[in-house]
Structure formats: C-alpha cells, structure tokens
Amino acid sequence: MLLKSKRSWEIAEANVTPESVVRNRRRFLTGAGGATVAIALSGFLKACEDETVKETLVEGEGDPSASLYPVKRNPRYEVDRALTDEDIATGYNNYVEFGSSKSIQREAQKLPLRPWVIEIDGDVEQPITISIDDLLARMPLEERVYRHRCVETWAITVPWSGFPLASLVEMARPGAGAKYLRMTSFLKPDFAKGQRSSFYDWPYIEGLTIEEATNELAFISTGMYGKPLPEQNGAPLRLTVPWKYGFKCTKGIVRFTFTDERPVTFWEMLQGDEYGFWANVNPMVPHRRWSQATERLLGTDDRVPTLLYNGYAEQVASLYAGRKDEQLFM
Ligand SMILES: Nc1nc2c(c(=O)[nH]1)N[C@H]1C(S)=C(S)[C@@H](COP(=O)(O)O)O[C@H]1N2
Ligand SMILES: [Mo]
C-alpha cells in the first residue's frame, strides 16, 4: 500500500517503503526467544533476520487440506474476463506482514499454517474455538471466479475456493446487537518480519457490517486455482469481498468478533483519509492521489475501465441505499 509522504513524485503503484516516511514512534516488540527488544524507527528498519525454519509446507504438498481441492465451481460466479495466470496471482502480492514490496512470496513461506486455531467470539450465542481443518470440514466448499481490484489500480481475476462468509455467521449465531464483524489477522513477529516494524499497528484488522458479511458475495477463501491457498495469498483463510478495494480482503485470519462497534481497520488507523472503512470500488471517486477510472490487468497489462462496485452493483448496491451521507468509496 502506498502511504502519504511529503514527496510529490509518488504515483500509484510506486514501490514505497513505508518505513521511509519518518516517524518518531517507539514501541517495545517481543523478539525471538521471548527477549524484549526495543526497536527505534528512523529511516530504514533493519529487523533482525528470522532464523526460524518452518516445517515444510511447499505449494500445497503436505498441506492437510490438499485433498479437499479442487472443489466444484459455482456457475453463478463467473466473470467475463480471462483468468489471471496462477504464477502472476501468486507472485505479485500485497502482504505488509512480510514486507512492503510485491515480492513477498518467499518470505511468506515462513508462516506456519498448522496448528491454526480460529476464535469466533463477541456477541454470539457461545464463543467457538475451532481448528482450520475442523472448520473446513464443516463449511460448504465451492469455487467462485471473482475480480479483484487493488486500490493501487492493478486487478486480477482468480478462481477462489472457499465458503460463503454467511455460513460462518450462521454457525456463530450472533446476537441481535451484533452490527459488525471484526476480523483479526495473526500476530507472529517471529515469522512475519513486517510485524517487527512499529510503524504499523499490528495485527491487521478488517471489518464489515453484518449485512455485508451475509451478502451472497462475501466469501472466505481457503484455496485458489484448485489448490490450498498459498501463504502469500493469505493461507489458511482470507476474506474475499470483490466489490471493495483489495485491502479489505484480510489474510491469515485468526479471529472473527461480532460487535456493536464499527471496527477501526488497519489502514483506517494509519491513514483514514485515504483508506476508509467502506472502500467500495467506484471509478468516479478518485483516490486522493490518483484516478480510479481505469485499472491494469496483471499479465496482459491492458488498461480497462473500472466498474462501479467492481462490476458487482447488482448484488451489493442495495446495501448502501440508506448510507448516502457516508464516505462509501474510499
Ligand atoms: N493481513 C493482510 N491482508 C491483506 C493485505 C496485507 O497487507 N495484510 N494486503 C491487502 C491488499 S492491499 C490487497 S490488494 C490484497 C492482495 O491479495 P493477493 O496478494 O492475494 O492478490 O490483500 C489484502 N489483504
Ligand atoms: Mo490492495
């Protein structure tokens, strides 16, 4: 993601190192071995290199969920665009936990995917603690082809495997007071070197209204291209809300919390005037520093017009009918 700095030459998709934005924040981080290490940020952060070696889970091999895929494609969710090549969609990523470039694929392999325990809590009938493999066994898996539009203006088209977020909400049995669903990502600075940077408020938080979370399009991806999700794309589970800018699609989720309070999201906390809570795609509403009128398709580099709600207005426009006064598109 691109952060505001005093430099006027910044353009969309420029590879900005957020740490280069000077901040005088200090925070104590727990480093490897439980030692408490003070990391002062000024200029570049030289995080200690991670020595921890993970059990091998290479490209789906050895992943206990590998036998679940491929799953049947739901023909309701196809798009009139060619699929992005798998190598591209799995090799050009945003995942600040592992660094600020697009080339975090190798670094992300350090994330241990098992055990992976998910908490479902807050305003629910009874809190649930469930392992990813038990959750996968309970959820109705299917494949859907969705467009994905990053706020930085690149776009991909991906065959996701996973389940409707509505199925998880149904399992959770939220109370009548639950107006929002907050999603929290993992916090493992020993494995995720970006999390040793105190520039950000970790962990990554995202949120949806309950109406959004139970919209038919809201999806939890657990696989892509007929295989388990790779680490760099958010394994073992990530949110996929294709009508919103990509930063809403939080990766590596460990907690779903039902609440009456609107979550303050990761990017909102850092720079809310550019990356807001709603973040619905709209070609007519420019980002503060660039136009959102067109997008670049990764692979072909074709520039094509961006669509309102990323082409999903029919399914989601009604969610916002009563919210005209809000900043729905940033
Ligand atoms: N936890 C977490 N989730 C994240 C991000 C991130 O940095 N951390 N980046 C977001 C952004 S900006 C985009 S565009 C998508 C990219 O998903 P992809 O790499 O699978 O294409 O992930 C989103 N989810
Ligand atoms: Mo993004």
Describe how the helices and strands are arranged.
Layout: E1 26-30, E2 36-40, H1 86-89, H2 105-108, E3 117-122, E4 128-131, H3 132-138, E5 142-149, E6 154-164, H4 165-172, E7 180-185, E8 205-209, H5 210-213, E9 219-224, E10 227-228, E11 238-240, E12 253-259, H6 266-271, E13 294-297, E14 303-305, H7 313-316
Parallel strand pairs: 3-12, 6-13
Antiparallel strand pairs: 1-2, 3-4, 5-6, 6-9, 7-8, 7-12, 9-10, 9-11, 13-14
The chain binds the ligand Nc1nc2c(c(=O)[nH]1)N[C@H]1C(S)=C(S)[C@@H](COP(=O)(O)O)O[C@H]1N2 and molybdenum atom (MO).
Distinct small-molecule ligands in the complex: ligand MTE, molybdenum atom
Instruction: Find the CATH superfamily.
Output: Oxidoreductase, molybdopterin-binding domain
Structural class, from secondary structure content? alpha+beta
Level-2 CATH architecture: Alpha-Beta Complex
Low-confidence stretches: 6-12, 14-53
Q: Give a count of the beta strands, DSSP E runs of length 2 or more.
A: 14
Q: Could you tell me how far the N terminus lies from the C terminus, measured between alpha carbons in angstroms?
A: 14 Å
**Could you tell me the radius of gyration in angstroms?**
19 Å
Tally of helical runs: 7
The total domain count is 1
Helix content: 10-25%
Strand content: 15-25%
CATH fold field value: Sulfite Oxidase, Chain A, domain 2
Shape designation: globular
Describe the fold and architecture:
The chain has 330 residues and is α+β, with helices and mostly antiparallel strands. It has a single domain (64-320), classed as Sulfite Oxidase, Chain A, domain 2, CATH 3.90.420.10. 11% of the residues lie in helices and 23% in strands. The chain is built from seven helices and 14 strands. Strands 5, 6, 9, 10, 11, 13 and 14 form a seven-stranded mixed sheet that branches. Strands 4-3-12-7-8 form a five-stranded mixed sheet. The radius of gyration is 19 Å and the shape is globular. Mean pLDDT is 87; it is low at 6-12 and 14-53. Residues 1, 93-97, 148, 150, 185, 204, 233-234, 246-247, 249-252 line the site of the ligand Nc1nc2c(c(=O)[nH]1)N[C@H]1C(S)=C(S)[C@@H](COP(=O)(O)O)O[C@H]1N2.
